[in-house]
Amino acid sequence: MEYAILDSEGITSTPGMIDLYNYDSITNEFLYSSREYLSLGVGLPAYSCIDAPGPFRNGFTVCRTADGNAWEYVIDRRGETVYSIKTGAALIISLPGDYPPDTTPVAPETPFDIWNGKNWVTDVDAQQATKVTIAEEEKSQRLDFAYQKIVVGQTKLLMGKKLSKSEYEKLFSWIEYIDAVTSLDIYSMQDIDWPSIPK
C-alpha cells in the first residue's frame, strides 16, 4: 500500500492512502479518524488534518485550534446546568468550553433572587409586592364568590319575603365570611390564614 505524500503547501505530490483526523466544522472538536485515498494534486478534505489528537482527559475534549494548526484541550461542561445572572433562567450547556458569560452553576433559591456579583440574594421588596398582589387577587375572588352566594337571600328580603331558617343561616354564614375576609390585613401578614368557606 502506497501512502500519500504532501508537499509544503499540503498538496499531494504522491497519491496514496493517508490517515486523517476529522473535526467538527463549528466547534472544531475531534470527531473520528479515517483512512482515505488522496489523488495527485489535491489537498486534505475540509475539517481534517494528519496529526493525531492527544489522549483523552477527563473533563476535557480535544479541539482543533482556531488557526487549524494544532490540537488543544478544551474544558467540557456539556450537560451541566447553569443559570443566567441576569434573569435566573436555567441553561443546559451544549457546546465545549467553560461556563458561558453571565452565568453561574449556582441556582437561585427563589424567583426573586438577584445576582450581587458573587451570590444570589433575595429581593425581599419584590417578593413581598408579589405576595400582596396575589393576595389582593385572591381576596377579590373570594369576595366576588361570596357576594354571589348572598344575592338570592338579599333579594328576597328586599322584596319583603321571609327566609326559611336554613336560608337565613346560610345568608348569615356568608355575611360573616365576607366580614372576615374583608377585615384581613393582607399587607402585613406573611402567611394568610383565609377563613373557611361556608358549607
Give a structural overview.
- The chain has 199 residues and is an alpha+beta fold.
- The chain is 27% helix and 25% strand.
- It contains 2 helices and 12 strands.
- It has helices at residues 124-158, 165-183; strands at residues 5-6, 12-14, 16-23, 30-38, 48-49, 60-64, 71-75, 81-84, 90-92, 103-104, 113-115, 120-122.
- It has a 3-stranded antiparallel sheet with strand order 4-3-5, with no helix packed on it. The chain has a 3-stranded antiparallel sheet with strand order 9-8-10, with no helix packed on it.
- α1 runs antiparallel to α2 (165-183).
- The longest helix is centred in the C-terminal third of the chain and has 35 residues, at 124-158.
- It is rod-shaped.
- The termini are far apart.
- The relative contact order is 0.07.
Work out the helicity level.
25-40%
Strand order in the largest sheet = 4-3-5
Could you state the order of secondary-structure elements as H and E? EEEEEEEEEEEEHH
Low-confidence stretches: none
Straight-line N-to-C gap: 92 Å
- Which radius of gyration do the C-alpha atoms yield? 36 Å
**Main sheet characteristics:** 3 strands, antiparallel
Rounded mean pLDDT is: 94
Oligomeric nature of the chains: single chain
> What characteristic shape results from the CA principal axes?
rod-shaped
Number of strands: 12
